Amino acid sequence: VTPTKHVPHTFDTSLYKKDYSRLNLPTQNRFTFYFIGEMNQRKHLSALIQAFHIEFQPHEPVELVIKVNKFGMSPEQLAQELQGFCNSIKENLRLYKDPNRYKPEIIITVNVSREDLLRLHRTCDCFVLPSYGEAWGVPAWEAMAMGNLVIASATGAMLDYIDSERNGFLVGGTMEPVFGQHETFEEFGTSRELWFNISVLQLMRTMRRVYAMDKEKQNTVRESAKLSAGKYDYVVVGQQMKELLQIN
After folding, report:
1. How far is CA 99 from the centre of its chain?
2. Distance from C-alpha of 179 to C-alpha of 193, rounded to nearest angstrom
3. Whole-Å CA distances, 151 to 85, 143, 159, 223
4. What is the pLDDT of residue 187?
5. Which residues of the chain carry a pLDDT beneath 70?
C-alpha cells in the first residue's frame, strides 16, 4: 500500500484582512443569514429555506440572502427557477394561507466580481451550509476567514475546520442513501453511496440560538473563526508540504 499524507486546502489569507465596503442590500439593522454556492441537489438549499421560514416570523428583523450560480443558465432564468423553488417550499410548509405573508428571500443570481463576493460576506452575518457533503466548502470557510458566524452540516471537510461552539456551529443529522443527485458524473451520486442529511429541526434551533446570542459571545466566535483561518495560509501550508516532502 502506498503511504499517503494529508495536506489541507490553502488560501491567500491576506485577502480576508482587507476592509471591504458593504453591498447595497435591504439588510441594514437586520441579522442576515446567507448562502453562496451552486444551485444543485447536493447543497440541500431546501433545508435552509424550510428552517428559516419555520423558525422566524415575518415581523422579526432577520433576512435570508441566497447567492447562486448554475452552469448553462442565464441569471434571469436562474432567478426564476430559484424563486419557483422557494415558493414551492413555502406552499408545502402551509404556514400561511396568504403566500404574501412570508418574508421574501433576497435572491442574487447575477455574476459578480471576486471583490463583490467578499463584500457580500462583509454585508451579511451568518453563513449557512446545509449541504449533504463537501470536499471543502470554500464559501463557508471564507465566511469564517472574514470573521462571520458559520452554521454547517456536521460532515465532510467542515469537521476539519469548524470546532463547533468555538469558531462556528455544526448541526447533526443522519447518513442516508444518495437520492436525486444528477449534477455529477454517471458513476457517482448513486444510491449505493451515503450522504449526510442535516436535521431541519436542529438547524432551526441553531439558527435561532445564533441569532439570539449576545454580542459578546458572537464576537468571541467571530474572532476565533478569523484566527483559525491562519492555519490555511499559503506560507503555513507550504511549510507543512516541505516538511512532508523532507525539503530543506
Report:
1. 26
2. 9
3. 22, 10, 12, 15
4. 84
5. 248
Question: Do 33 and 203 meet the contact criterion of CB atoms below 8 Å apart?
Answer: no
Bridge-partner residues for 34, per DSSP? Answer: 65, 127
Report d(CA 188, CA 222) in Å as an integer: 36
Q: Note the pTM of the prediction, 2 decimals.
A: 0.95
The pLDDT, as a whole number, for residue 2 is 83
Q: What pLDDT score does 15 carry?
A: 96
Separation between Cα atoms, residue 41 and residue 179, nearest integer Å: 9
